[in-house]
Specification:
Layout lengths: L3 H8 L25 E5 L4 H6 L6 H12 L8 E4 L6 E4 L2 E4 L4 H19 L3 E5 L1 H8 L5 H4 L4 E2 L5 E5 L2 H5 L4 H22 L13
Helix pairs in contact: 4-5
Length: about 210
């Protein structure tokens, strides 16, 4: 099994898909190598691309607050993305997020995400958004139909799916945003509880 240190080093030089050509750098996962609980997002954003760390921008700040409200220490959680390079469209001086396509997700999840999870061997894996769920399940999924229940990903690991924190930032109505935030915190709380109690037959659970 390849160590996280070696994977992180190798990922810096990844040219498996065209996204590396315009991104500042590879943004690898961050957190304890023995974490029981892993959060998987879509891809690094503008600030993450510059900093070289996952979830440090507005969505990351909201995630930190939600983890705190759920009673979860972020330092105990491994945080990563399905895609390791920032995909964007230039618009003047700004770089606007562009969703990675299925091919980019498959290449990156096979080369890096799957190997990250093999190195960590977490008890529970949470998909933050549809792209992460696609990477973990191997197919397109609807988050609204999956929230609030445990499932098994394509590799047999236990997990659940919830929204990406950037989704919460885009909700214009304050009341609706607060309601969705509470649901997000509840999803994280559930994931932490499930991660703390290993399943009797984790690999035999019905897969997504």
């Amino acid at each position: 099994m390849t160590s996280l240190t070696r994977l992180r080093h190798d990922a810096k030089h990844c040219t498996a898909c065209p996204l590396y050509k315009h991104a500042t750098q590879t943004v690898f996962g961050e957190g304890p190598a023995n974490a029981r609980f892993v959060l998987v997002g879509e891809q690094p954003g503008d600030q993450e691309d510059i900093a070289g760390k996952p979830f440090v921008g507005p969505a990351g700040q909201l995630l930190d607050r939600a983890l705190d409200d759920a009673g979860i220490d972020r330092k105990s959680v491994y945080v990563t993305n399905a895609v390791k390079h920032f995909k964007f469209e230039p618009r003047g001086k700004r770089r606007i997020h562009s969703k990675p396509n299925a091919g980019e997700v498959k290449i990156c999840s096979t080369n890096w995400l799957a190997r990250e999870l093999d190195a960590i061997e977490p008890e529970f894996v949470v998909a933050l958004g549809a792209t992460a769920a696609q990477a973990l399940s191997g197919k397109g999924v609807a988050i609204a139909k999956l929230r609030g229940r445990e499932m098994a990903w394509a590799d047999g690991r236990r997990g659940l799916a919830t929204v990406h924190p950037s989704y919460l930032l885009r909700i214009p109505d304050r009341t609706a945003k607060e309601a969705e935030y509470e649901k997000f915190v509840a999803d994280l709380s559930l994931a932490a509880k499930l991660a703390a109690h290993p399943a009797k037959q984790p690999r035999e659970a019905a897969r997504l």
